[in-house]
Amino acid sequence: MAFTTLEESFEPTVMFFGLTNSPVTFQTMINELLRDLINTGKVVVFIDNVIVGMENEEGHDELVAEIIKMLEENNLYVKLEKYK
Q1: φ, ψ for residue 5 (rounded to 5)?
Q2: d(CA 71, CA 52)
Q3: Which of 34, 42, 35, 44 minimizes the C-alpha distance to 67?
Q4: Closest Cα to residue 23, out of 46, 1, 44, 2?
Q5: Is the dihedral of CA 25, 29, 30, 35 positive or negative?
Q6: Fewer CB within 10 Å of terminal CB in the chain, N or C?
Q7: CA dist 25 to 29, 47, 80, Å?
Q8: Per-residue confidence of the chain (84 residues) as pLDDT tens digits?
Q9: CA 35, CA 53: separation in Å to the nearest integer?
Q10: Hey, which residues does 9 pair with through a beta bridge?
Q11: Residue 29 contacts by C-beta under 8 Å, 6 or more apart in sequence?
């Protein structure tokens, strides 16, 4: 969502306060970012919760690192106190 002023184009980097449907907008963005991983069936996303479910521990750390890298590349971050 960008808009143009007299001098330049402006695209916000944070969600506007009071933006209608902001949870839906965020969910759509996360689904798009992690689409390939979601399609493998190993990752499930609900708004700001990313759940990694694997049958064994093999490859788990690499998958988590890949998710964090994708989030960082898109200027998103993880709150460590919410991590389990």
Answers
A1: -110, 180
A2: 15
A3: 34
A4: 46
A5: positive
A6: C
A7: 6, 9, 24
A8: 566 666 677 777 766 666 666 778 888 889 999 999 999 888 998 877 888 988 888 889 999 999 999 999 999 887 778 766
A9: 15
A10: 4
A11: none
